[in-house]
Specification:
This protein is α/β, with parallel strands linked by helices. The protein has one domain: Rossmann fold, CATH 3.40.50. It contains eight helices and seven strands. The protein has a seven-stranded parallel β-sheet with strand order 3-2-1-4-5-6-7, sandwiched between helices. The radius of gyration is 18 Å and the shape is globular. Nicotinamide-adenine-dinucleotide binds next to α1 and α6.
């Protein structure tokens, strides 16, 4: 299948590991030049080097925190300056902590909004004018199955991700006329460092082992296993490609069938 991604320029946020890194690898495998960021410089530069070696694409990698508006602005300007265009932007960040409602503090609410909603706003605001100029663009947000189906003890994610889904629909409505397609990908349980640390934190609270929690998550999904980061990345690459040219404003879950609704 011809994806039409060769020589496009893609920003992939929070891409030193996990789903972000898998998305960067998937886009590079299709010939996209990359702009990667994450907080940890060593992990980010190592990931960028490995992807450069395996794919041969050009990569700009800059360590910064996606909650830092000034850093996002500078980064997008640098990408546009270096490559002359910004075609694709995959927004991503870490996830908020696992908490029930009465355990959460105001600081944690503020932090979750900054991490998962405002960081998406910052990237969208900076990349859209570049996409408008070429009348072509793809924004793909990475959220969670919680944007459609709340998860127990993840109230911060459950509440804040729906804001991203609302933003995605609004941007899709407003910028479709400019050839900019905006979609949201919601992973279900996916084997990454994030899932391991969630399992360890939850295991202590509920008196189970992390392995028992993994087994339970796998059993809940009709496919009877947790997902791989590469499987989420495949949906992101498809949404960024020419093959998804009439799809916008959607939330696509990559969850092994875990979502219970129609
Ligand atoms: P991960 O912890 O493996 O990777 C997170 C990446 O984000 C890392 O590269 C890290 O350096 C970077 N990062 C974190 N905070 C950042 C910040 N403030 N600024 C810049 N970079 C930052 O996580 P993952 O499993 O790949 O998850 C990615 C997203 O998908 C998260 O929002 C997570 O909550 C969500 N999600 C994950 C799962 C799952 O099962 N893994 C399920 C649903 C949703």
């Amino acid at each position: 299948m011809e994806t039409g991604l060769s020589d496009r320029v893609a920003i992939v946020a929070a891409s030193s590991q996990g789903i972000g890194r898998a998305a960067a690898e998937g886009l590079a495998a299709e010939g996209c030049h990359l702009a990667m960021c994450a907080r940890n410089p060593e992990a980010l530069l190592a990931a960028a080097e490995e992807i450069r070696e395996s794919s041969g694409v050009q990569i700009l990698a800059e360590p910064f925190d996606v909650r830092d508006l000034a850093a996002v602005k500078q980064f997008v300007a640098k990408v546009a300056n270096r490559f002359g265009r910004v075609d694709i932007c995959v927004t991503n960040a870490g996830g908020p902590p696992s908490k029930s409602f009465l355990e959460t503090t105001n600081e944690e609410w503020q932090s979750a909004v900054e991490l998962n909603l405002l960081s998406t706003v910052y990237f969208a605001r900076e990349v859209i004018p570049h996409m408008q100029r070429r009348h072509w663009g793809r924004i793909v947000t990475i959220t969670s199955i919680s944007s459609k189906q709340p998860i127990a003890d993840l109230v911060l994610s459950n509440a804040v991700r729906t804001g991203v889904a609302g933003l995605v629909k609004s941007l899709a409505n407003e910028f479709g006329k400019d050839g900019i397609l905006v979609n949201n990908v919601g992973p279900g349980y996916t084997a990454t460092e994030r899932l391991k640390s969630l399992a360890e934190a939850r295991a202590k609270a509920v008196g189970k082992t992390a392995q028992e929690l993994f087994d339970g998550w796998a059993a809940d999904a009709p496919l009877k296993r947790v997902g791989e980061a590469r499987e989420v990345a495949d949906a992101i690459v498809w949404l960024a490609s020419e093959r998804a040219s009439y799809i916008t404003g959607q939330t696509i879950l990559v969850d092994g069938g875990l979502y219970k609704g129609l």
